[in-house]
Amino acid sequence: MTNSTKILGSLFLFLLISSVIVGIMTKNSFVDDVNLQINKEKYDTYGVSINGDSAYNEIYFEKINDFTELQHKSNVILRVTPTEERSNLAQSVLSKVKVIEVYKGKDIKKGEFVYIHEPNQFANEVYMSTNGYNLMTEGNEYIVFLKHLTIPENYTYKGQEEKTFVFVSSQFGKYSLNLKQNMLINREKAVDLSIPYNEIKEQDILTTDSLVLEKYNIMRENVYKAFKIQVSP
Description:
Layout: H1 3-29, H2 36-43, E1 47-51, H3 54-60, H4 67-73, E2 76-89, E3 92-104, E4 113-118, E5 120-123, E6 126-130, E7 142-148, E8 164-167, E9 174-176, H5 187-191, H6 197-200, H7 210-226
Parallel strand pairs: 1-6, 4-8
Antiparallel strand pairs: 2-3, 2-7, 3-4, 5-6, 7-8, 7-9
């Protein structure tokens, strides 16, 4: 074997080993940011940001003035509990929930599972809430006011799309059955992201506006009365 052959053989072996090492390092560098269950402890330290983009809200959500309007504009009203099957997507968390009761909605049965796009996201060490919406927490039950996904004319739902919904309102579309006192969010801390997610994750709504919080609490009482909900403190 000539020296040039040995050199070429050694170079090939070096490149092969280097490729394997780079491949392993690349694989290990990937972070599964989609699976909410895997990352939920890490998310506790993320700073909270409240996005109040009015244009976004007008496109995806309804303007709700009172409880009657909330019921009327909802295609589906359910009592649900979230499962561990949840995906952190762009601008939403897709949550699989179990239906406890059906108050309004065709072709949905008690005990089955449906999917809800929750208007928030974990990204770049920030928990981004859309207009004050706060993520449902596992182990709790909620009354949710939903509408079907918007689809083009003549389009037919495919797969789980038929059982996938969005909230009719990001602020007034969800009510926990645990009676918690929702606190106003400090505006300055929300701007500089100094509120960690674990401090607010049990709240039903995130807002710096006292009038919005007052309206939410009134709506919540109407929800409890309308559906004869006995809540635990």
